[in-house]
Amino acid sequence: MTQELAGRVALVTGAGRNIGRAIARDLAAGGAAVAVNARANRAEAEAVVAEIVSAGGRAIVALGDVTDPAAVEGMVRAVLETFGRLDILVNNAALRRELPFAEMDFAAWRAVLDVCLDGAFHCARAALPALRASGHGTIVNIGGLTGHSGAARRAHVVTAKAGLAGFTRALAHDLAPDITVNLVAPGLIDTAREAARPHHRGGRRTLVGREGTPEEVAAAVRFLAGPRARYITGQTLHVNGGAYLPG
Questions:
Q1: Distance between CA atoms of 49 and 198, rounded to whole angstroms?
Q2: Average pLDDT in the 101-108 region?
Q3: Quick check: 116 and 157 in contact, CB under 8 A?
Q4: Residue 54: helix, strand or coil by DSSP?
Q5: What is the pLDDT of residue 198?
Q6: What confidence tens digit (pLDDT) does each residue in 190-228 have?
Q7: Cα–Cα distance, 109 to 139 (Å, whole number)
Q8: How deeply is 216 buried, as exposed, middle or buried, from its count of CB atoms within 10 A (0-12, 13-18, 19+)?
Q9: Domains located in the chain, CATH noted
Q10: d(CA 86, CA 209)
Q11: How far apart are CA 156 and CA 4, in angstroms?
Q12: Which of 195-198's residues contact partners 24+ apart within 8 Å by CB, and which partners?
C-alpha cells in the first residue's frame, strides 16, 4: 500500500471500536495523522491511538460528544493545535438501536437522530473552515444498508441514515468544488456488539456468502479520502456483499 495520505490529517468520530477503529487505522496506514474520537471511553480511544503509534503513525485522542456543538468545536480546535490542519472528516458516530415503533417515545427517537444526523451537522460545520483551507478537503459520512432498504424496529436509525444520505448530496452541492462529500453505506458487517444480533439481519443474505469486515468498510473510506477520488462527490458507495442492490 502507498502513503497516499501522507501529510494529511483526519478526524474520525466514533473511532474507539469496530468500523470507526478500522477506519482510523487504515487512514493512518495511508499516511494520515488521525484524531480518534470517542464520546467518553478514553481507554478505547487510547488503545486505537496506541495501535496507530506502534505501527509508526501519528494519532491523538479527541474525546467529545458529537451532539454538543461546543465539544465538537473543541475537538476541531485540538486537532488544529496539534497538527496544524484538517483534511478529512469521517462522520461515523452512531447509535444503532432496535425498538418497535409502537414502543418508541420521542426521547428514544431523538437520541438516535441527535448522534447520527445532528452530530454529522455539528462536525461538518466546525470542520468547514479547515477543510476549505486544505486543498484536499473531504467528508465521508457512514450510512447504512437499512437507510436505503428500510427495516422493522429501526424507524429512528433508518430515518437518521436516510437523512445522512440526503445530507451528503446536499453538502456535495454546497461545498463543491473545494470539498468532496460522499457516503459509505455498510451492510451486514461482522462487528462486536453488546446487544443481540440485529433483528433486521434475520432475512438477509449476501451474494458473496459471508458478512463483511470493518476493514473492508475502511478500505472504501480510505479510497474516497484519497487523491484518486477527487472526481467523486455526492455519491453513496454500498459495501454490503450484494445484500442490497440499488436500482
A1: 29
A2: 98
A3: yes
A4: helix
A5: 60
A6: 998 565 556 555 578 999 999 999 999 999 999 999 999
A7: 25
A8: middle
A9: 9-239 (3.40.50.720)
A10: 39
A11: 37
A12: 195/98, 198/96, 198/98
109-156 per-position pLDDT tens digit? 999 999 999 999 999 999 999 999 999 999 999 999 999 999 999 999
176: cell is 463543491
The angle formed by the CA atoms of residues 29, 85 and 51, to the nearest 5 degrees, is: 30
A 10 A CB-CB count for 112 gives 23
What the block records as the C-alpha cell of 239 is: 459495501
Task: Please report, for the chain, how many H helices and E strands are present, in that order.
Answer: 8, 7
| pLDDT given for residue 204 in this prediction | 87
Please report the pLDDT score of residue 213 as a whole number.
98
Distance set, CA 79 to CA 115, 133, 206, 216, 223 (Å): 21, 14, 39, 26, 22
CA proximity to 67, closest of 10, 126, 22, 137: 126
Amino acid at 88: I
The grid coordinates listed for 131 are 477543510
> Do you find a cis peptide bond into 129, omega within 30 degrees of 0?
no
Would you say 93 and 128 are in contact if contact means Cβ atoms under 8 Å apart?
no
